């Protein structure tokens, strides 16, 4: 299974720390060093699990819009949204816990027309103010049927939003677009004319689960 590049770097750091800790135990017979070895080695192994990046079977039909994140759907609603026709958008929000795959994917094919990163707070992802007050990154994608906005929201545990696309990039449906370290939420904003194909409480997988239909 593929491991995200961030995971390889972080795992490498904890592997080195584990080796150093074991060296302290071996040379100084310090059981404190042994305990730190166990801790760092466990985190080293967990890094590979957390940053796993499995391949996904991406739906190829022309009308389906797929989830940008793995997790549980926590909101499906029509809300006011800047940049969308009529000032309204269909929002589908997915909460990711620390055990979900954290690689985010493009819900549909299109061109990236804008990316924005906004610093902010670290409120719980379930807090209604998190969408507006937390650190987050927006990826605006122009598609054949209108604008899609993917919002990566940092949370109480998540400490970093990673966006790996830039303005001008051409995306295929299911393309990898970034990740959020250690859980949080990803909101997908769609034209209000799209029909939701999921509901609150559903479990979805990035790149595979259909969350809405256009046309």
Automatic annotation (TrEMBL):
One of its GO terms (biological process) is phospholipid biosynthetic process. Keywords: Cell membrane, Decarboxylase, Lipid biosynthesis, Lipid metabolism, Lyase, Membrane, Phospholipid biosynthesis, Phospholipid metabolism, Pyruvate, Transmembrane, Transmembrane helix, Zymogen. The chain crosses the membrane at residues 7-28, 34-51. InterPro entries: PS_Dcarbxylase, PSD-A. PROSITE patterns: PROKAR_LIPOPROTEIN (PS51257). The keyword Zinc does not apply. The keyword Lipid biosynthesis applies. GO terms for molecular function: phosphatidylserine decarboxylase activity. PANTHER family: ARCHAETIDYLSERINE DECARBOXYLASE PROENZYME-RELATED (PTHR35809:SF1). This is Phosphatidylserine decarboxylase. It comes from marine sediment metagenome.
């Amino acid at each position: 299974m593929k491991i995200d590049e961030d995971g390889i770097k972080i795992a490498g750091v904890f592997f080195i720390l584990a080796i150093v800790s074991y060296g302290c135990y071996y040379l100084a017979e310090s059981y404190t060093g042994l305990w730190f070895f166990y801790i760092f080695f466990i985190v080293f192994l967990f890094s590979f699990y957390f940053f796993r990046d499995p391949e996904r079977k991406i739906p190829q039909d022309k009308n389906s819009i797929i989830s940008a994140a793995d997790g549980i759907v926590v909101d499906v609603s029509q809300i006011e949204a800047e940049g969308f026709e009529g000032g309204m958008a269909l929002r589908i929000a997915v909460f990711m816990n620390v055990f979900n795959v954290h690689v985010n994917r493009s819900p549909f094919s299109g061109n990236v027309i804008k990316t924005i990163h906004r610093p902010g707070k670290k409120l719980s992802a379930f807090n209604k103010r998190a969408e507006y007050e937390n650190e987050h990154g927006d990826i605006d994608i122009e598609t054949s049927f209108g604008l899609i906005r993917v919002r990566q929201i940092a949370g109480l545990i998540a400490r970093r939003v990673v966006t790996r696309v830039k303005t001008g990039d051409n995306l295929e449906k299911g393309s990898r677009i970034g990740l959020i370290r250690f859980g949080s939420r990803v909101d997908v904003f769609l034209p209000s004319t799209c029909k939701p194909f999921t509901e609150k409480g559903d479990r979805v997988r990035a790149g595979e689960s259909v969350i809405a239909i256009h046309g």
